[in-house]
Write a structure and sequence with these properties.
Helix content is 68%, strand content 0%. The chain is built from 15 helices and no strands.
């Protein structure tokens, strides 16, 4: 990035944001990363077992009441990554991996906003706000993979819609293989892909739009197939449906509750929501339907379940620019 378009003496905007993200994650975010959540130990333990046995377990070997029962290893790949980081540098390695995943989503969010025509100032402002919202759920857990891959998926889709170059969507099915084996949040990616596919039929803009329509339909089908390249196969879908449909589990898990707007992070989210409403209400430019669908869809998910705030923070900035 030319120096005259940024602040003299500072690195490029992307480098500055990555540095800031790492600083937040490994600075003030570090105590909360391990002190407010006990899941990191389970993820490292499961990953360590996979590395030691060189086998992906399909039976529960950790629980007392369900020992030997069917177990869906929906996060095995990210668990292996966290266990590998732990082998290399202990909890410092686990924290570093989490910080890298966090910084990837921050960096790609910035890239997405600049690709869609946002000025450097707007892009930096949106990305910094996104980073603060993502930091609310900055824990050393596999959900960081979903946030990072969602931002990368958006990059691939935005570039394809802008250029109609096939190489951008070529990477999408492999991305879903990794995603489905790393975290159960991959259906959010399928929803994003579906919205972009619909946009080629409803919006009808972009180069070679006829080819784009059918290409994205094929890519969507291949992405669904890619999610089945998984130890438990199609059982992952029934497992996720049962998990999300368990009212008792949803009721006792704090992150599945609606945001607490009395908490400091809840006030930040409320400020972002009100600011978004103000911008949309006073802007002379009409938000395209895809941008509105991305914004409202992720916002609705966040209002229902606070754990989706990271997805809202990643997808939301794209909504402010024309696709």
């Amino acid at each position: 990035m030319p120096a005259r378009r940024w602040l003299p003496g500072l690195p490029s905007p992307s480098g500055f944001l990555v540095f800031l993200a790492l600083l937040v994650a490994l600075g003030p975010g570090l105590p909360r990363m391990f002190g407010s959540d006990g899941d990191v130990g389970r993820h490292v333990r499961v990953g360590e077992g996979i590395l030691s046995e060189r086998e992906i377990p399909t039976a529960d070997l950790l629980s007392h009441t369900r020992y030997g029962k069917q177990w869906i290893p929906k996060e095995w790949l990210s668990q292996v990554a966290f266990a590998g980081a732990d082998r290399l540098h202990g909890l410092s390695g686990v924290a570093t991996l989490a910080a890298v995943l966090f910084s990837v989503s921050v960096l790609v969010t910035y890239v997405n906003t600049t690709l869609l025509g946002g000025s450097i100032g707007i892009a930096v402002g949106l990305t910094a706000t996104s980073m603060l919202l993502q930091a609310v759920h900055l824990l050393a857990r596999p959900h960081l993979v979903t946030t990072a891959l969602a931002s990368i998926l958006l990059l691939l889709l935005v570039q394809y819609r802008r250029t109609a170059r096939f190489e951008w969507v070529l990477f999408i099915p492999p991305l879903f293989v990794v995603w489905a084996n790393s975290h159960g949040g991959f259906p959010a990616g399928l929803a994003l892909l579906t919205l972009f596919c619909l946009d080629t039929w409803i919006g009808g803009r972009g180069p070679d739009i006829g080819r784009q329509r059918w290409t994205l339909i094929v890519v969507l089908g291949l992405a669904i197939v890619a999610t089945l390249v998984y130890p438990a196969g199609p059982a992952i879908y029934s497992h996720l449906a049962a998990h999300l449909g368990n009212d008792f589990l949803m009721g006792i898990t704090e992150e599945f509750q609606s945001p607490d707007f009395h908490a400091p992070w809840g006030r930040l989210l409320l400020a972002v929501i009100l600011g978004t409403a103000l911008i949309l209400g006073t802007s002379a430019r009409r938000l395209p339907w895809l941008g509105l669908a991305l914004l409202l869809g992720t916002l609705a998910a966040t209002l229902v379940s606070a754990r989706h705030i990271s997805l809202f923070a990643t997808v939301g900035p794209v909504s402010y620019t024309h696709l």
